[in-house]
Amino acid sequence: MKSIKFIASCALLAGATASFGHENMHNNHPAVAPQQQEWGIAGEAKGAKRTITLRMTDDMRFTPSHFTVKQGETVRLRVENQGQVMHEVVLGTQGTLDQHAAMMRQYPDMEHAEPHMAHVAPRAKEDLVWHFNRPGRFDFACLIPGHYEAGMRGTFTVTP
Fold first, then answer.
1. If you ran DSSP here, which 8-state letter would residue 40 be given?
2. Residue 96: which of 37, 34, 137 has the closest Cα?
3. Cβ(89)–Cβ(147) below 8 Å
4. Which of 75, 82, 121, 145 is deepest in the core (most CB within 10 A)?
């Protein structure tokens, strides 16, 4: 019986990881209810009244490296990769980003997708729409192994 449970668990895990990958994700998120995070919740494009462009380059920097939004604001983050290699932006807290970066170092081919992240191919752009409904100071980063460690990070403030 334990063998059957083990095989079923492995099959489920293999199926789940095959569904989400850095290579094939372009904000095509599964149809699931948005999950409240410390830094906000997924927004709807029609609710975005403002666009902030985040540019990523191969010098492992974001421009701008800080932005400010108002609590309750839904913003379209237009993420532009001006480099020659894959980059991503992940919104979070320092703790969640550190945790995710550690997992990415351990499993560099880890497949995943969340509405608070955008994976952007070289010379491409993606939109991430986020509803900033909690005040505070938060972080964003590229968690691709080596990029995060090289300082590809930024911060954002949600003002009450």
1. B
2. 37
3. no
4. 75
Closest by CA to 61, choosing from 156, 140, 157, 159, is: 140
Residues in contact with 39: Cβ distance below 8 Å, sequence separation at least 6, in sequence order: 91, 92, 93, 116, 132, 134, 136, 138, 156, 158
pLDDT in tens, 39-55: 999 999 999 999 999 99
**What local confidence, expressed as pLDDT, does residue 153 receive?**
97
Residues near 13 by beta carbon (within 8 Å), at least 6 away in sequence: none
* Cα gap 48→29, rounded to integer Å: 18
Which residue has tokens 């880890």? 110
CA distance 59 to 27: 24
Strand partners, 52: 77
